[in-house]
Amino acid sequence: MGTRGSRMSRTCRMSFELLATDGKARRGRLTFPRGVVETPAFMPVGTYGTVKGMLPRDIEATGAQMILGNTFHLWLRPGTEVIKGHGDLHDFMQWKGPILTDSGGFQVFSLGAMRKIKEEGVTFASPVDGAKVFMGPEESMQVQRDLGSDVVMIFDECTPYPADEDVARVSMELSLRWAKRSKVAHGENTAALFGIVQGGMHENLRKRSLEGLDEIGFDGLAIGGLSVGEPKHEMIKVLDYLPGLMPADKPRYLMGVGKPEDLVEGVRRGVDMFDCVMPTRNARNGHLFIDTGVLKIRNAFHRHDNTPLDPTCDCYTCKNFSRAYLHHLDKCGEMLGSMLNTIHNLRHYQLLMAGLREAIQQGTLAAFVDAFYAKRGLPTPPLG
């Protein structure tokens, strides 16, 4: 696959350096004026300009270097004029590191019957007040410019699952046309612009999408249309071939994924960046990630457990509170419980990513992955 996207007339304020490889896995570094992001990286999701239950200093303390903001929701509420009144999204939410914003495409298309797709873009009823609203590539690029995003995502259509080849082709081709318009609308904006590979579960369409994006030229590439209801083996099938076809000199981002096991499998196949609401959402529901799997803190047998949640974890929660206390907070519905749970889950994810980075750097990824699955009592899945 060529790298035409590296020959762009404007200057991008993001740079990517590939530091080491171990098999298909990559250890890299993204550099922005606002800070460095070591890859493979996991980005906590701050949908409404906040990672739920977390102060910015707490997010930073987990080891997160970059977060994700939601263009669609921030555009509707509070609106870009409010945010611009503070400077940009960094100033509004007091997060000093880099921010990636999604384009709003996934949220628009998740509205189902509430939206109407045309070549120009999408018209839909606002989930906030029911008002008729329009968003297309140009609008999405302007909103993300107003937010001051460090990484901007193109406006695309997330191919539904299941989708036969004809449906997936029409969707993918529309996304390519919108990708061209997104690139033009992005203009001289020095923020990084990422293309999104679509095509459903069809390898020929995924390859055509990637070729089309390469011809347009982007600063990084994302894999979209996964974790949308497909079986795990279907996702892995796409990851077995797609990351390796992407340009080696650009970051690769797997959108909306996922469980710790999904991060490991993505990294093994050459993915550099991830985001998902799972660690924060699961934390609020009392599902806590530990090395052996998932601990459900609301289960009654934790009531008298005076041990730390995870003795191998160095987060504020594990260093200060017992499982019994976390169980008590959960049973009482205390907001502190969700906050402490979220601190732990996000730290668990960051420790996992740090371990993966170190293993790639040392050339010991296979042993790291074997140990990861052994702690869960699972065999290591084969690489395709």
TrEMBL record:
Substrate binds at residues 102-106, 156, 198, 225. It is an enzyme of class 2 (transferase). Zn(2+) binds at residues 313, 315, 318, 344. InterPro entries: ArchSynthase1/Queuine_TRR, TGT, TGT-like_sf, tRNA_ribo_trans-like. PANTHER family: QUEUINE TRNA-RIBOSYLTRANSFERASE. Homodimer. Within each dimer, one monomer is responsible for RNA recognition and catalysis, while the other monomer binds to the replacement base PreQ1. Catalyzes the base-exchange of a guanine (G) residue with the queuine precursor 7-aminomethyl-7-deazaguanine (PreQ1) at position 34 (anticodon wobble position) in tRNAs with GU(N) anticodons (tRNA-Asp, -Asn, -His and -Tyr). Catalysis occurs through a double-displacement mechanism. The nucleophile active site attacks the C1' of nucleotide 34 to detach the guanine base from the RNA, forming a covalent enzyme-RNA intermediate. The proton acceptor active site deprotonates the incoming PreQ1, allowing a nucleophilic attack on the C1' of the ribose to form the product. This is Queuine tRNA-ribosyltransferase. It comes from Pseudomonas syringae pv. delphinii.
